[in-house]
Amino acid sequence: MSPNYMRSFSEGCLRPPTVIGQFHTLFFGSVRMFFLGVLGFAVYGNEALHFSCDPDKREVNLFCYNQFRPITPQVFWALQLVIVLVPGAFFHLYAACKSIKQEDILKKSFYAGFYMFSVFLRIILEAVAFWLQIQLFGFKVNAIYMCDVGALEKKFNITRCMVPEHLEKTIFLIAMYTFTVITVVLCIAEIFEISCRRLGILKSQ
């Protein structure tokens, strides 16, 4: 791909054709990614090391931690961010290959419809991620996790495990839910903006 295509692609990703889309990019790229990258590591970075069960043995701790965390929150949220970016990136790659200027996207029905479809996909992906997060992590992290260690052939099938910094993790969970809701609201507002521009209610940029 030529440098011009790459330049058009990067400009499209950083400066979408709608005002709300540009705000979404700013929110997504700065606040959400910063929150996950910096604070997420601080909250979850050493969780596995401080997760302890009774009896406090390495094999029990590892077994119960894998049961407690089928997937680590940082990995889940990183995958969520990447997957949600795919529809928009695909559209802007298409626009770059077709040499479509950002200011012309909303002027033609096909391009506007294609872009709106990518926004719909973002909403669907965010909704699926929201549901999966509920299934995996719930809304609250308890201080005690009851682990089933029957597979280890222990005398007691259920053992108590201490979850470190459970309050911080609960706050972080609620924040990530909130970010997902804000992103969905922005996507819905962007679709509304596109519709208004197509109907002539709002003037084009």
From TrEMBL:
Cross-referenced Pfam families, in alphabetical order?
Answer: Connexin
- Give the transmembrane region(s): 25-44, 75-97, 109-132, 171-192
The cellular location(s) given in this protein's UniProt record come to: Cell membrane
A single cellular component GO annotation = connexin complex
- Its primary localisation, in coarse terms, equals membrane
Connexin cysteine-rich domain span: 125-194
- Keyword annotations: Cell membrane, Disulfide bond, Membrane, Transmembrane, Transmembrane helix, Transport
Q: How does it sit in the membrane?
A: Multi-pass membrane protein
Any keyword Transferase?
no
Q: What is this protein called?
A: Gap junction epsilon-1 protein
Organism, as annotated = Chloroceryle aenea
